[in-house]
Amino acid sequence: MVAGKAPSTLEDHAGYWLRYVSNHVTHAFARKVEARGVTVAEWVLLRAMLEAGAANPSVIADTVGMTRGTVSKLVERLSRKKLAVRSSSEGDRRYQTVELTAAGRRLVPVLARLADENDREFFGHLKPDDRSRLVTLLQDIVRRHGWKDLPVD
């Protein structure tokens, strides 16, 4: 310790407050989606698959910033839940596409409403300009560091 200067406290750091808020926001959302039978990681993949339509798992992995192995495991879990289906190419059995089932396509808007509700619960008290500024600042941090992986845990 430098003579006369106390070390910074946890509360002095923006990262501390980001983690504090993030933990509460993400745990609340996790409970909401788990009540619908999926994990947050599965929700992220479901949402990406809705946008992608029938697509190669590697394309989806690149889109969401997950490894191909993680996407494969999540697709398998979603398949067991009858929310996704995997198809092989007739000409090349190694080439596969994955897509949502009708049940998966119906579930995504339900989960999106839960995400919207979670946002309102935690950020609804902010003035629209303040909320927009917060999102812009966080997006700037993400861009500055070149982060691509989506936060799913």
TrEMBL record:
Protein name per UniProt: HTH-type transcriptional repressor NicR
BP terms from Gene Ontology: response to stress
SUPFAM superfamilies the UniProt entry points to: Winged helix' DNA-binding domain
Limits of the HTH marR-type domain: 11-143
Molecular functions per Gene Ontology: DNA-binding transcription factor activity
Pfam families the record matches: MarR_2
